[in-house]
Amino acid sequence: MPSLLQDLRFTLRMLGRNRLFSVAVVVTLAMAIGATTAVATTVHHVLLRPLPYPQSDRLMRVSESLSQSSQLPATYPDLMDWRANARGLAGVEAFHEQDLTITGAGGPQRLKATLATSGLFSLLGVQPLLGRGWEPAEETSGHRLAVLDHGLWQRRFGGARDILGRTLILDGEPFTVVGVLPQGFSFVPGTEVWMPLTPDPESYTRTAHFLRIVARLAPGVTAENAARELTIRLGVMDQEATGRAGDRIARVVPWHEGLVKNVRGQLWLLGGVVILVLLIACANVANLMLTRATARQREVSVRVALGAHRWQLIQQFLIESLVLAFMGGAAGLLVASWSMGILRSLVPEGVQFQGEPGFDGTLLVIAFVTSLLTGVLFGLVPALRVSRAEARGALGGLAGHSATMRGAFGSLLVVAQVALAAVALVGSGLILRTLHSLQTASLGFEPRDVITAELSLPAARYPDEAGRRQFASALLDRLRVLPEVEATGLVSTLPMTGRNNGMRLSLPGESEDTARTRAPIYVRVASAGYFKALRVPLREGRPFVDGDGPSAPPVVLINEPFAQRFFPGRTAVGQRVKLGLGDGTWREVVGVVGAMHHNEVDEQVSPELFLPLEQSPLEEMALTVRMKNASGGTFSAVREQLRALDPDLPLAAVRSLDEVVDATFGDRRRLGSLLAALASLGLGLAAVGLYAVLALAVARQRRELGIRAALGASSGHLRGLVLGHGMRLVAGGILVGLLGAALVARTLTGLLYGVSAADPVTFAGVPLLLATIALSACWLPARRATRASPLESLRHEG
Question: What is the mean pLDDT of the chain?
Answer without folding.
Answer: 83
